[in-house]
Specification:
The structure is a homodimer. The first copy, chain A, is of the alpha+beta class. The first copy, chain A, has 2 domains: 113 residues, Aminotransferase class 4, branched-chain amino acid transferase, N-terminal domain (D-amino Acid Aminotransferase, Chain A, domain 1); 148 residues, Alpha-Beta Barrel (D-amino Acid Aminotransferase, Chain A, domain 2), CATH 3.20.10.10. Chain A is 25% helix and 29% strand. In chain A, strand 15 and strand 16 form a beta hairpin. The N and C termini of chain A lie far apart (40 Å). The model of chain A has no long low-confidence stretch (mean pLDDT 93). At the A-B interface, strand 3, helix 1, strand 6, strand 7 and helix 4 of A face strand 3, helix 1, strand 6, strand 7 and helix 4 of B.
């Protein structure tokens, strides 16, 4: 049986303090990375998003070499992971704090690095069916794009269905714009252009999303990052989701309707991403 | 020196698991209560808000007698609290969970009860100066009113000033309506009517806010719970803030402007609240 391994501020530990502001106030950011054969995928791009999140929240940016050491320790110490495949989570909180919202002085952030092996390897990237969530994402430009710890909107949206046949839920914002899926970004191809929602008002700008945008540039596929709506989904020839762990998944069914069977660009983009090393992280 | 005491799921403990969804996803709610001479103030009203929060998030509601026992333990065990005055925090999270937003099955919630003594007694309730925060609250009706763990908006707003002379920051929503202060509700008295923002789109419906509304009813002071704006503040004769720990505080200065020197109704409401036992909890 596989078990996770956590490293907390450099020490093997499975606990944090009850007064950690990550727990008491959601005061922090995190990253979730796929690990293949012991190597975290898109490591530098994840570090860039982590830095963007820290800057947005006024958190000290952890040193990359310190994090890398903690990641190696967590992967090496997790049991049942002979293949070295699994999921890595890096959580950075503002650390212990007193009562109230004012920033603690001094700030002593908490880093938690957890590796969970996938003995069966990473999930596949098949075509999936999705639904539309009724919960609408709130518009908060100050938190848009980053992966902060306050994820109740996604939790409530994900709780809207309990059908294993539905892989994801599409989410719109309170003004009716398509934003993302609960744990993935969304892309569509329409008349030879790759389109994806702008994430300047809400949503999380995923790492694989940045990879897809870079791959499109490399393939000279025109890109539009824009406000999109349900009509754009209907008009699309291809739709796909991106998530660092589950990869690229084509959407072939939305709310029971089918009609997106092409994979011309999604397959080419997926192949191109495999060739790319570090890509620029795109927040919007 | 005083030290806090935490009780985690009934056991004296100062830690929670790194995979607790309160830490990883902000998946939970909390209450902050004033404790006077060993007795939590407005206990039943706090329990009602906790229940409303649990219902909104689909969390099991903790048994009141279990919580009461944990609260007594935390207060009794905290050192340096001979007077029994202090602040109690009750945090309820969805407990340990795997990766992803889907609800864990089974759900084993985490209860953390922490008492922090105030050797010098609870803070006073003087007149205060406030400022207007630039951060606007996002509109999310599904989370409005409850005290959930995702408090980054309040943290970013509170980080906007570092002047001990400013007690609080007033917050507006993204559509320009006055909502609350970073850690308090806001009331104004205008031409013989008590007015306070509706909290159906964002904001936290405080316990002392419910007490003020009940006290106004008892005093036959007309009440309007409505959308308010900056013009209403300017037109007010009295403005005050409410917070369970800091109590009722009159606002006499906003962004350097003074002019709210009356305390006719705020003093009467404060006196009336002292007479009230349990009041109905008002979410909007």
């Amino acid at each position: 049986m596989q078990t996770s391994c956590s490293v907390v501020n450099g020490r093997l530990d499975a606990t944090i303090a009850t007064n950690d502001r990550g727990f008491t106030l959601g005061d922090g950011v995190f990253e979730t990375l796929a690990v293949v054969a012991g190597a975290p995928r898109h490591w530098h791009t994840h570090l860039r998003r982590l830095r963007v999140g820290c800057e947005r929240l006024g958190l000290p940016v952890p040193a990359a070499d310190v994090l890398a050491t903690e990641v190696r320790t967590a992967i090496a110490r997790a049991s049942g992971s002979r293949a070295g495949d699994g999921v890595l989570r890096i959580t950075l909180s503002r650390g212990p704090g007193g009562r109230g919202y004012a920033l603690p002085v001094p700030t002593e952030p908490t880093r938690v690095v957890t590796f969970t092996p996938f003995p069966a390897g990473l999930p596949g990237t098949d075509a999936v069916a999705v639904r539309t969530c009724t919960l609408r994402l709130a518009i908060q430009p100050r938190l848009a794009g980053i992966k902060h710890l306050g994820r109740l909107e996604q939790i409530l949206a994900r709780a809207e269905w309990d059908d294993d046949g539905i892989a994801e839920g599409l989410m719109y914002d309170t003004e009716g714009a398509l934003v993302e899926a609960t744990a993935a970004n969304v892309f569509l191809v329409q008349e030879g252009t790759l389109r994806t929602p702008r994430l300047d008002r809400c949503g999380v700008a995923g790492i694989l999303r940045s990879c897809v945008l870079a791959a499109a540039d490399a393939l000279e596929l025109p890109v539009e990052v824009d406000r999109l709506g349900a009509a754009d989904l209907n008009a699309a020839e291809e739709i796909f989701l991106t998530n660092s762990v589950t990869g690229m998944r084509r959407v072939t069914c939305i709310d029971g309707r089918t009609g997106w069977s092409q994979d011309y660009w999604s397959s080419r983009l997926a192949a191109k991403i495999a060739d790319l090393e570090t890509v620029e992280y795109r927040t919007e």
